Amino acid sequence: MTERKPSVWTLPGIPPLLITTALAFSGFSLLLPVAPLWATMGGADSFGSGLVNGLLMLSTVATQMLVSPGLRVLGWSRMLVIGLLCLGLPSALHLFSDQLPLILGLAIVRGVGFGIITVCGSSAVAALVEPKRRGRAIGAYGLAIAVPQFVLVPAAPWLAEQVSPALVFGLGIAPALAVPFAIVLGRRLATVPPPQTSAIDINPQGSRIAAVRTRAVVMPIVALLTITCTGGAVLTFAPSMLENTTTAVVALLALTGLGALSRWIFGGIADRFGARRFIAPLLVVAAIGAAGLAVGLTGNTDALATTLLLVGAALIGTAYGGLQNVTLVEAFAAAGDRSRNVVSVVWNAGFDLGTGLGSVVVGTIATASSFPTSFVVLSIASVIVAALVALLRPRVEPR
To answer: How far is 134 from 320, CA to CA, in rounded Å?
Structure first.
């Protein structure tokens, strides 16, 4: 009789990882819409308020490049604690002033914390879970990220305007509350042996296979950039491009809710059938969703246009969540366990760069032309990348 394996939710190190991640992303999600709003309340213009999250993402990506050497020098527990404190404590400092210079400075510090937490989190999943079950573990990790975003991103501006910004900034220190769990997680990760050098890495063909692995990682990251451009554009511009407030809120809920569900579901699917085969189809789903948004935006506020907008957002959300899972699983598989920290850095940087790039590209095209044109361009880009993923298969299967 085959011994039944324990659930990935209960594997050693996973519970403190999920709690740490959920608290970290709760603080991040609360301030993502409210910090720019606070700057606007203090008199900043649209450029100034937009600069808040721009600097946050820039600081995040810059920090992500330094996490691997930081882990070697400081270890898991210290790095996680530094990340959580940098992400959480600046929230309370917003109460001292609503002026832009302070808010921008705090955004940079929060970006440092967010960069550390995102890279450490995805690296921890790879370190704690065997490759054959990694998809499910990434799905659980994705839920710990997506559920706070689903609940708090729409709720935070309402709380700030209807109750008080102070309440949001008080709740925003949530990452700091995760410090005890992070220490437990760090101690567990310190006991995980480093990946062993394999025969592939030392045989005469090692450099050739390393090159194949590098090429195999490129397409998942390109696919990730494509979907985060599309999803990030909807998250950024839904309130301004959708005239009906209710439609905008429902569209955001559809995107984030289905994104969370899809990220979880595709974990088990990727483990069972492999991750790569789902990348191109999910990009096609995103292309259809972007096209639906484009058509819906050209119509009036009638039932058909509203339906197209919501279905488009739902399809993008499905692809947005699914691709977050399968691209990370595929990138880890293609690169091998010895490169898991590097893959974590590249994947997280790709995610954040894609989100920022989507806002810039769509904003630029919409200014020159229109929002429907922007989403037509994103739809075409998704189809092109899907074709490339389908055609440019690695000659050597990832080990």
So the answer is: 19
CA atoms of 27 and 93, how far apart (whole Å): 14
- pLDDT score for 240: 67
Question: Looking at this protein, which amino acid is placed at residue 351?
Answer: F
Residue by residue, DSSP assigns 212-276 as: HHHHHHHHHHHHHHHHHHHHHHHHHHHHHH-SSHHHHHHHHHHHHHHHHHHHHHHHHHHHHH-SG
The answer on pLDDT for 201 being more than 60 is no
Tokens found for residue 92: 């309370």
Residues 122 and 348: beta-carbon distance below 8 Å: yes
Nearest Cα to 124, choosing from 49, 12, 215? 12
Q: Is the pLDDT of residue 176 over 60?
A: yes
- Which residue's entry shows tokens 């429902």? 250
- 238 has pLDDT over 80: no
Which residues, including other chains, have CB under 8 Å from residue 175's CB and lie 6 or more apart? 23, 24, 26, 27, 28, 84, 85, 87, 88, 113, 117
